[in-house]
Amino acid sequence: MTLKIGVIGTGAIGQEHIQRLHNKLVGSTVVAVNDINKSQAEEVAQRLTPAAKVFENGHDLITDPNVDAIVVTSWGPTHEEFVLSSIAAGKPVFCEKPLATTAEACLNIVNAEIASGRQLVQVGFMRRYDKSYRLLKEQITNGNLGQPMMVHCAHRNPSVPEVYAGDMAITDSFPHEIDVLRWLLDDDYVSAQVIMPRKTKHTRKDLDDPHMILLETKKGIRIDVEVFVNCPYGYDIQCQVVGEDGIGYLPEPMSVLLRKDAKLSHEILQDWKLRFIDSYDVELQEWIESVKAGVVRGPTAWDGYFASVTADACVEAKHSGKIVPIQIGERPSFYAPTALKPAA
Ligand code: NAP
I need a surface site. Which of 84, 137, 177, 238 has the fewest CB within 10 A? Predict the structure, then answer.
């Protein structure tokens, strides 16, 4: 069976996902697209999936009987309405991160999904599908490192656009770390603290950079993450898990070791897309398979909600200078990994 997908939002990542779902991955086809900018949606459909129907609005796309499942890649503030609409239609929905732009909106989605009685929502936290993170997780779950005690991480970008301002290091970049570290450690956070080092000369007046974010987990693991978004040398994601019996390092992206010009060197990536390009393919291929199997195996609406609450706590911690508790309550049994619900 070929899964017939409708995509809402034909901007940057929307176009990439349409290309993947329609032309690259196995078992799916894009039959419908929508964007608030209709001429863009028409141009994208024409170029990438000419037989697809272009819808005037996302809600009509969701309820169209020819659409089996929905991919939401529109602007963040629209995610809540399109995910709620997909739940109301009883259709599986893959929503790019963030699940919604406020914790309250994420909770609305969680409550609607629980009330529907069926797990339908997956959030686009693609690092869980990255081969290097999966290898590191294997070392933790097979006990090779002993119990993890500390995790040292860095999220470094060479530069960010002008629109990246305010607390976006926490609300836009850091959520990937929030999700992948929770998944890696199979643990939840209980508090957050943010320490501001001196500002780099490479940033703008209106953008604090770098941040040092400290998280504490329920099991007592301490995590420090440097988020440095004007790091001139390149795009670099680091993660080091310190266990009782050993230390696991996130593998470096593969590159040729050069002996040249009196130097021994490896290339460092400049573009974040290249770092995670393969993980997007794995993420959406596994989503297609899980939708067909009638389950949600990836990051859930609860995970999206948890990321939002954690990011809010970090923003509060940054501005108050205090250690802020992360109070979210127990994960509902609806979202327990063993309680996978049929999606249709
Ligand atoms: P983008 O290029 O701005 O694309 C978003 C598109 O949504 C735009 O074409 C926008 O149209 C459209 N849109 C806005 N309101 C809409 C509505 N009501 N109905 C239908 N379409 C609407 O942004 P992007 O970079 O693709 O990002 C999209 C989402 O993916 C964001 O939530 C972002 O955080 C996420 N993302 C995730 C990753 C990841 O690593 N997982 C990477 C990149 C992006 P206009 O431009 O005309 O407003």
Answer: 238
Ligand 1 geometric centre to CA of 41 (Å)? 12
Q: Which atom of ligand 1 is nearest to the CA of 276?
A: 40
73 CA distance to ligand 1 middle (Å):
5
Rounded distance between C-alpha atoms, residue 209 and residue 220, angstroms: 28
List 243's β-bridge partners, or say none.
148
pLDDT digits (tens, 9 = 90+) for 129-188: 999 999 999 999 999 999 999 999 999 999 999 999 999 999 999 999 999 999 999 999
DSSP-assigned beta bridge partners for residue 217? 189
- Ligand 1 atom 4: residue of nearest CA: 11
Cα-to-centroid distance, 74 and ligand 1 (Å): 4
Per-residue pLDDT tens digits for 223-260:
999 999 999 999 999 999 999 999 999 999 999 999 99
Residue 130 CA to residue 212 CA, distance in Å, equals 24
Closest CA to 317 of 172, 218, 216, 213: 213
Q: Which residues pair with 214 in a beta bridge?
A: 193, 224
Q: Which residues pair with 55 in a beta bridge?
A: 34
**Pair type for strands 189-195 and 211-217:** antiparallel
pTM: 0.95
Pocket (CB within 6 angstroms of ligand 1):
8-14, 34-37, 40, 58, 73-76, 78, 96-97, 124, 126
> What is the percentage of the chain residues whose pLDDT exceeds 70?
98
- Map residue 167 onto helix, strand or coil: coil
| Cβ-based burial of 306 (10 A; exposed 0-12, middle 13-18, buried ≥19) | buried
What is the CA(34)–ligand 1 centre distance, in A? 12
